[in-house]
Amino acid sequence: MNRADLNKRPAQVAAMFDEVAAHYDRTNALLSVGNASLWRLATTKAVNPQAGERILDIAAGTGTSSAALAHSGAHVVAADFSAGMIEVGQARHAHNANIEFVQADATALPFTDNEFDAVTISFGLRNVVEPKKALAEFYRVTKPGGRVVICEFSTPPLTLVRQSYFAYLNHVMPRVVRLASSNAEAYDYLGESIAAWPTQPVLSGWLRSAGYSQVAYRNLTLGIVALHRGTKP
């Protein structure tokens, strides 16, 4: 079984996601207790995709988030580092001409400057070995006036919620994934990476440093997840 560690070696991360690709969406729905669809809806609304726009969905996995964005008539480039995820996504969305799958490294995107009306990533920035470098790449490929939207696990601000959440990650989730996932060890990394991820204000600071303006965030599900956004001047 492959699992990544907090060094986030790209090949190791890709191999881990290759192994869990087939049942990835089902496991996520189970672990989020149904909240995954609500988080996706909030992210899609924040991106506000419009017909004719070109949108980059990074760490798109099997394309579930991309399909939600493409429903508007936008052309969505679903980029992911994992060949296994892309294979599952291409098979699942072969009928959708508005979704284009591309294997890509978030820190070295194979796209031209100012190419996309919006760039978004859901639950993927945390898995990038150099997240600040990835944000610089997001900025580079965003059109002037374009937007970035990041949905990521975060730090609940209320002490009781935070303690309960980390107790769930450490004790309940490992038992659940042993029943639901083809690679339960991969989800040990999930808990570790969430615990090590910086707080919402820190990520907002990273977005500003990358060059984005109008940076803001709002908490979802009591801060278990946060939705960040910014605009390229």
Question: What would you say this structure looks like, in words?
Answer:
This protein has 233 residues and is α/β, with parallel strands linked by helices. It has a single domain (10-231), classed as 3-Layer(aba) Sandwich (Rossmann fold). It has helices at residues 10-20, 24-31, 35-47, 64-70, 83-92, 131-141, 159-180, 186-196, 200-210; strands at 54-58, 75-80, 99-103, 116-122, 142-153, 213-220, 225-231. It has a seven-stranded mixed β-sheet with strand order 3-2-1-4-5-7-6, with helices on both faces. Its EC number is 2.1.1.163. GO terms for molecular function: demethylmenaquinone methyltransferase activity.
Provide mean pLDDT, rounded: 87
Oligomer: single chain
- Rg is 17 Å
The helix fraction, in percent, is 40-55%
- Give the total of domains: 1
Question: β content, as a range?
Answer: 15-25%
The CATH topology label is Rossmann fold
Contiguous low-pLDDT stretches (5 residues minimum) are 1-6
Please write the CATH class name: Alpha Beta
Secondary-structure element order, as H and E? HHHEHEHEEHEHHHEE
Q: Which outline best applies?
A: globular
Class derived from helix and strand content: alpha/beta
Q: What topology, given as strand order, has the largest sheet?
A: 3-2-1-4-5-7-6
CATH second-level architecture: 3-Layer(aba) Sandwich
| First-last Cα distance | 45 Å
The number of helical runs is 9
The tally of beta strands, per DSSP, is: 7
| CATH homologous superfamily heading | Vaccinia Virus protein VP39
Main sheet characteristics: 7 strands, mixed
